[in-house]
Amino acid sequence: MSHPAPPVPPPATTRGRRELTVAVLLCALSGGLALSASGEPWADVTVVREPPLPPTAQVLTGSQAAPLVAACGLLLLAAAVAVIAVRGVGRMVVGLLVAVAGGVLGWSGLRALTGSLDLGGADVTSGVGLGQAQVTTDPVATWPAVALVAGVLGVLAGALVVLRGRDWPGMGRRYERTGQPAGATAAPARPARPARPETDEDRHQAAWKALDRGDDPTA
Predict the structure, then answer these.
(1) 209-218 burial, b if ≥16 CB within 10 A, otherwise e?
(2) Mean pLDDT value across residues 95-123
(3) Distance in angstroms (rounded) separating the CA atoms of residues 219 and 201
(4) What strand order describes the sheet that includes 56-61?
(5) Which domains does the chain have, with CATH numbers?
(6) Sign of the C-alpha dihedral, residues 200, 201, 206, 210?
(7) Residue 109 dihedral angles phi and psi, to the nearest 5°
(8) Which of 152, 158, 143, 161 is nearest to 35 (CA)?
(9) How much is the pTM?
(10) What number of other Cβ atoms are within 10 A of residue 124's Cβ?
């Protein structure tokens, strides 16, 4: 005997789940790339000081040259979970934050590639005699480019959430302690079976039980 085929979800629901999956993957990939790039070298800095001080060289990582890169990476990883957990206006807010984080990542990577990093907060001029020094920056293109790609992915993910997120499903409701889904109505009680007529065997058993209790079955 063949079993009936399971119900097929509506096309809109299937499309929404696919779009939600794509947005979550884009957020996670963008955040992972940003965190990876933040710990890698972004620029080689050479400081030429006045004689007799020798020149110094320093390698700046992404977190030193652009501190917001690591913060944006963490935000994007958290957004990958938040997109699933929230719905409605909350999901739109998450999408906007994702797009902003992607824009910051892309801008940071682009500035590093063009040699326009602000090294004021990178602590390259804290040595003795560096007030009259000449600082030369040689960008390392690989990891700023990775940050730029991560930014583009983040902007795409944020735009997808903002434009399409209202139609996506949310996190499923958990079952209550009684084992019944939340919001479900109680099953109707089964009707009691009609009592069958008493037989001689039933009367004999009832008499023996009465004797065991110390009652007189003939009373």
Answers:
(1) eeeeeeeeee
(2) 84
(3) 19
(4) 56-61, 41-48, 134-139
(5) 12-121+132-167 (1.20.140)
(6) positive
(7) -65, -40
(8) 143
(9) 0.65
(10) 21
